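Bumping my old thread because nobody answered last time. Still need a sequence for this structure:
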């Protein structure tokens, strides 16, 4: 890109990476979607990719993130209102995502919670949306996932479902029954414990038409949702509740936001500290079974965390490749410099492995209803995939940033925002160690974990390092002192599953991935794995046309 300025010609800068088809330009995504049964959606996905890849959408994302939400605790007359105001660009993303059904398309709108197939196509859209704007994905994923928990209360979900499934975004602050569509959030984490929710102190007392909730939540995101699934202690123990923003009599519920968190990233989205002062709520599931009820929701948000992080990596990779193809150093394009090619190809391999892994996992969710092996696969692999994919993202984005040199460190490029966004998916919805403990649980309790590992080993038997990896996973997750070694085994499990997924969507990448990740252990940085020159050429060609 060149241009004449007063004092000099501006040369050798890459043009903005905008107005792209986020679907068609991503061969790994196209092949993973096809391998997992959603090839028929290709045209619609490409239309989505073109729409979300416009310069205008990238600009809207910048606006949504440089104009973070504001808390208005009181109205003009001094009455409490607890309203959070968002920039119009944030509302735009909510409207776009809901129009495409990202908040509910995997549920049958009339008879929840039977589930409708379509996890793969919906995840492909969610992954593309994550490349552009992440903050609004928080209420989108929570709304979809809440249905799984609300299913424990058939009468309530029957009333809520038409509003949840509706695709026209309604940001108005009114009782949910009066609105055309609603969004849902979740409040579990308290000051004394997020992982250990059994330590919750928020109390629930029965009243004539529901429960009265008193206490607090230390983190409760997307506060303008129309209702929240909240954990509180009732007489029989920790219980899940649906807490609407308005009471049944139409008055504003006693959900008082104390503060908006000043976060590293995820700035377009609001996360509050909140107090409940006799807030009205309805029970979801049995008293004392709150954890079991809400975990139905968390399994789906964890899947979305991994999908979103795969999207973040894809955008970082695309930016790096695009820049390196336009930028010359020492009379040669960066993309042709051997060491840069090794770095970019190694990143492309990981990006390809993660999208393939996530889409295969989505297919397990689709098939789980009628196939116990797929149900076991979804159960075991969701925490493992969230662990590995989300933990890989920050280092990945950092490396992509460095590919752009100084430009990558400056806000005008999208990289700083992606970098700030990268860690949160590993922290919320169960942090890294908690994911590993969950994998141990799934392996230990007759949930088919060992059979899943054996199936993955069978699928990858011709790949280097597969048998050894499967052996090490089982030994390590079943041995003494398991917790201390769980991270190594869970990372290996996710990588074995990635190799298996790649055998179905990209066999050449499967071999390179297994060779460099299962049979070998590369150094700490990208570009240190033992890729062959031929692998590098294939991976780079696939990564961006
Ligand atoms: C931006 C943002 C938004 C959020 N929004 C919401 C929301 O909307 N609703 C909500 O309920 N929560 C929300 N959270 C909270 C989030 O889910 C918790 O922060 C997370 O679950 C971790 O809990 P904690 O902060 O209490 O940390 P802790 O539970 O104290 O954990 C600290 C660390 O210890 C590790 N650890 C825990 N137990 C063990 C163990 N047995 N062995 C080894 N290591 C262990 C964890 O993996 C973690 O790394 C949000 C958090 C963030 C950052």
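Sorry it took so long. Here it is:
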């Amino acid at each position: 890109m060149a241009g004449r300025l007063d004092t000099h010609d501006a040369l050798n800068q890459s043009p903005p990476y905008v107005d792209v088809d986020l679907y068609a330009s991503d061969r790994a995504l196209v092949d993973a979607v096809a391998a997992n049964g959603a090839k028929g959606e290709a045209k619609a996905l490409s239309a989505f990719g073109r729409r979300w890849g416009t310069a205008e959408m990238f600009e809207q994302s910048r606006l949504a993130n440089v104009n973070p939400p504001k808390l208005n605790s009181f109205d003009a007359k001094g009455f409490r209102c607890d309203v959070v105001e968002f920039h119009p660009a944030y509302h735009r993303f909510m409207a776009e995502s809901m129009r495409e059904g990202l908040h509910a398309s995997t549920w049958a709108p009339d008879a929840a919670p039977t589930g409708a197939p379509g996890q793969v196509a919906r995840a492909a859209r969610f992954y593309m949306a994550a490349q552009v704007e992440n903050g609004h994905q928080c209420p989108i994923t929570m709304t979809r996932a809440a249905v799984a928990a609300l299913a424990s209360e058939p009468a309530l979900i029957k009333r809520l479902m038409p509003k949840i499934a509706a695709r026209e975004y309604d940001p108005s602050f009114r009782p949910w029954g009066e609105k055309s569509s609603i969004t849902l959030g979740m409040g579990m984490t308290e000051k004394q414990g997020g992982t250990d929710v059994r330590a919750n102190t928020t109390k629930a007392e029965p009243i004539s038409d529901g429960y009265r909730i008193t206490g607090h939540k230390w983190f409760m995101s997307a506060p303008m949702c129309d209702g929240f699934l909240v954990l509180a202690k009732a007489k029989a123990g920790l219980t899940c509740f649906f807490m609407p923003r308005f009471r049944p009599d139409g008055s504003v519920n006693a959900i008082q936001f104390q503060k908006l968190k000043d976060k590293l990233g995820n700035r377009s989205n609001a996360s509050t500290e909140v107090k409940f002062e006799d807030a009205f709520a309805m029970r979801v599931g049995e008293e004392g079974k709150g954890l079991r009820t809400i975990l139905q929701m968390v399994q789906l948000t964890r899947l979305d965390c991994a999908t979103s992080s795969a999207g973040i990596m894809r955008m970082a990779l695309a930016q790096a490749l695009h820049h390196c193809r336009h930028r010359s150093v020492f009379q040669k394009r960066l993309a042709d410099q051997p060491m840069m090619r090794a770095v970019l190809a190694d990143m492309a391999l990981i990006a390809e492995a993660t999208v393939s892994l996530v889409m295969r996992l989505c297919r397990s969710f689709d098939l789980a209803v009628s196939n116990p092996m797929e149900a076991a696969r979804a159960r075991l692999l969701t925490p493992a995939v969230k662990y590995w994919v989300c933990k890989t993202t920050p280092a990945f984005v950092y490396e992509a940033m460095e590919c752009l040199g100084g430009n990558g460190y400056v806000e005008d490029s999208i990289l700083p925002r992606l970098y700030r966004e990268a860690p949160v998916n590993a922290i919320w919805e169960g942090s890294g160690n908690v994911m590993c403990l969950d994998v141990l649980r799934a392996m230990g309790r007759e949930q088919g974990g060992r059979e899943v590992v054996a199936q993955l080993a069978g699928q990858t038997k011709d790949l280097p390092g597969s048998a050894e990896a499967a052996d090490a996973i089982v030994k390590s997750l079943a041995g003494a002192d398991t917790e201390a070694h769980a991270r190594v085994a869970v990372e290996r499990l996710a990588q074995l599953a990635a190799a298996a997924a790649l055998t179905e969507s990209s066999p050449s990448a499967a071999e390179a991935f297994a060779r460099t990740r299962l049979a070998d252990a590369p150094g700490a940085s990208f570009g240190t794995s033992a890729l062959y020159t031929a692998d590098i050429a294939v991976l780079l060609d696939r990564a961006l046309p």
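The CA atoms of residues 65 and 268 lie 5 Å apart. Let me know if any region looks off to you.
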